[in-house]
Amino acid sequence: MNCEAAGSRFAGVLGSLLAGLPTGAARVAGSAEGEDGVKDLESTLAAAQINAGEAATAGFAEGADRASRVEIAAYRLKQWLTSPRPYLMLLGFGLFFAFWYLTVEVWKLPRFSQMPGPTTIISEWLSPDPTYGLSIYSPEYYQHIWVSWRRVSVAFLLATATGVPLGLFLGWSQPFKEYVFPVFELLRPIPPLAWVPLAIIMFQGSETPIVFLTFLASFYATTLNTMLGVESIDVSFVRAAYCLGAKRRQVFWHVIVPGAMPFIFTGLQISVGVAWFSLVAGEMVSGQYGLGYLINTSYTMVQYPTMVIGMITLGIVGYATSAAVRMFGNYLMQWRTRELAMGGDK
Amino acid sequence: MKPAPVPSGERPFAEAKPPPLAPQAHRKGEIRIADVVKIYGSGTSGVRAVDNCTFDVPAGKITVVVGPSGCGKTTLLNAIAGFHSITSGTIHLDGALLCGPGRLKADPGPDRIVVFQNGALFPWKTIIENVAFGPMMQGRLNKKEAFEKARGMLAEAGLRDLESNYPGEISSGMRRRVEIARALMNDPKVLLLDEPYRALDSLTKSVMHEALLETFDRNQVTIFFITHDLEEAIFLGHRVVIMTTRPCRPKKILTVDIPHPRDYSVLTAKRFREYLDETIAAVHEEALKAFAAGERER
After folding, report:
1. CA gyration radius for chain B?
2. What is the CATH number of the domain that holds A308?
3. Are residues A175 and A284 in the same domain?
4. What CA–CA distance (Å, rounded) separates B294 from B298?
5. How many Å lie between the alpha carbon of A221 and the closest alpha carbon of chain B?
6. Is the peptide bond before B247 cis (omega within 30 degrees of 0)?
7. Which of B109, B99, B111 is nearest to B75 (CA)?
8. Among A83, A331, B76, B161, whose CB has the most other CB atoms within 10 angstroms?
């Protein structure tokens, strides 16, 4: 799974170089691939929670709760280690590196003649005195990561703060949707790369255009998924709430918002992924630091190992942020995690 | 039964037992449906779902409406609940107009609570939050009071240990019972049940029937129950309204003269079989018409 994610990240970086941003189809495929893995993981996790949860239901004392969390973690780890999954994952990574090693360093295939092999990369990456000036020992490396991470965070938070409310209103109010949605759908297919010139004209400096470009794709993914989330809510829930005497505003907070939550978090996972895609596009155009900038400058300066280090780092950091969003979603949606563990799909 | 007061705590719901039945006139929840017509769409292309439908749902009784699938029973229920408008006619609840000329759609409210076909417990709320939802939304009780009352309700229904579970974690039969408890929290005048047990297997169904009758015996709430299961209809109902196929109107109204509280021994009683035969004869004719008209299972 990890390997696959890392692989798709590589593909993504290359893809955004060549063709700008992936279209809706690619996004959907990405989310589906994510979902399978997520569901699998969630089931294990939640099964453990239920075991421990039985003890907790009696009292729900603070201490008991904390103890059970440790138990859950231990149980999860044990489950994971006794399942074939970690070993398959390692095997996947092994095959990937073996392929890379064989094609580049052993067979020296013509297609890969310019490409640095894995041993070159790893020795460069881990070297205290790197040939091309960048490794885990150079403070610059962390500067690049930090600057990119900061841009993605700002853009992602802005996209969430605007996209979720917009999506909720689009799904909730038909007249509002009729005004806004056609415009939204017209703007959405324009890839962030096409926005680059306008972004540079509109915003001063080099920082805001990059954040703006990063924001765009995230914003579309979040808004669209949130809207679909609201539309996916069974009308019975809304009717039941009105039956029980809820006012329109209460229905919004107690039914619409939590009901759309699973879709919102799927959207946020996609959103953080595409934020990294478009970040790199933005950083290749302007900026002083950042992983996209690093990749682009090391290309122009023929420092190919550094370029690949930048790419791998993007994969790792992108995967980590995506996982963080997913974990936060599972934490907020206990009901869903537990429901999936019961094998229910309602 | 001894006449002396029952010592409290002997059974979980002993205290909640209502006082002896009030006279008929004082009980709430009488629905009068008069000349109701519902046409979907308009002009010549409109589909007439309900046509000149007139019957009463007496207060404090169980009225079961049976008819072929897709005949328009749910349309009627939605009109009473306030989810849909009617085209003409009137529906009164305890003498007050719910919907009629000038006000074709009723407002949904806690005096008429629907229990849905597929269940509508909020999956993101725990059982107790679900049960306490109504009074909290209406601002009648604060959270503490509502939870306390909800605990009582759950205990009465034998669901005490489930309160911190989510609906996705309990069986579908349990979910239906929780949903009825959630409805009863609001002291509704009438419960509207739209084929609530359709998706359950027959064993669970029989347990649910007895639980529903027990609830009814305790609360004497008016029940409007839609089904196409004839045994279910006669087993539960004081009154069974058999509907024609689309457009829907009462074809036959049957008073089931088997005393409450009922239990499953009723099913083998001779009288029960007679009622069933009578119903089958009436329904079968309609089912044939519906089949001929190409009405599909929804």
Report:
1. 20
2. 1.10.3720.10
3. yes
4. 12
5. 24
6. yes
7. B99
8. B76
B182 neighbourhood in chain A, CB within 8 Å: 244
Domains of chain B: 26-111+188-292 (3.40.50.300), 122-186 (no CATH)
Contact B120 A60 (CB under 8 A): no
What range defines the domain where residue A22 resides?
Answer: 2-125
Chosen domain end from A125, A150, A181: A125
List C-alpha distances in Å: B14 to A295, B9, B185, B214, B259. 76, 7, 17, 13, 22
Contact criterion met (CB below 8 Å) for B98 and B91:
yes
pLDDT tens for the 346 residues of chain A, in order:
344 444 444 344 333 433 333 333 333 333 444 444 444 444 444 444 444 444 344 444 444 555 567 888 888 889 888 889 999 999 999 999 999 999 998 988 888 888 888 999 999 999 898 888 888 999 999 999 999 999 999 999 999 999 999 999 999 999 999 999 999 999 999 988 898 889 888 988 888 999 999 999 999 999 999 999 999 999 999 999 999 999 999 999 999 999 999 999 999 999 999 999 889 888 887 778 899 999 999 999 989 999 999 999 999 999 999 999 999 998 888 888 777 776 544 4
* Best CA proximity match to B106, nearest among B38, B198, B6, B184: B38
| Nearest CA-CA partner of A220 in A260, A192, A194 | A192
- The one-letter amino acid code at B195 reads E
Reported ipTM: the value is 0.84
**Tokens encoding B167:** 């609906």
CB B191 within 8 A of CB B180: yes
Task: Name the nearest CA neighbour of B158 among B116, B211, B202.
Answer: B211
Contact B168 A333 (CB under 8 A): no
Contacts of residue B186 in chain A, CB cutoff 8 Å?
A: 244-245
Query: Nearest C-alpha of chain A: how many angstroms from B150?
Result: 14
Order of strands, sheet of B31-40, starting from the edge strand that comes earlier in the sequence:
B47-57, B31-40, B88-93, B96-99
The percentage of residues in chain A with a pLDDT greater than 70, rounded to a whole number, is 79
Residue that terminates a domain, selected from A75, A97, A125: A125
Long-range contacts of A38-45, Cβ-Cβ distance < 8 Å, separation of 24 or more: A38/A326, A39/A340, A42/A330, A42/A337, A42/A340, A42/A341, A43/A340, A43/A341, A43/A343, A44/A76, A44/A79, A44/A80, A44/A83, A45/A72, A45/A76, A45/A330, A45/A337, A45/A341
The pair phi, psi for residue B196, each rounded to 5°, is: -70, -20
Contact B196, B182 (CB under 8 A): no
Report in angstroms the alpha-carbon separations of B215 from B62, B212, B221, B257. Answer: 12, 5, 9, 20
Nearest CA in chain B to A234: B120
Based on the domain organization, do A146 and A290 belong to the same domain? Answer: yes
- Residue A147 and residue A16 share a domain: no
Share of chain B above pLDDT 90, in %: 22
Say yes or no to pLDDT of B89 above 50.
yes
Mutate: best of B127, B131, B169, B180, partner A, most A CBs <10 A: B169
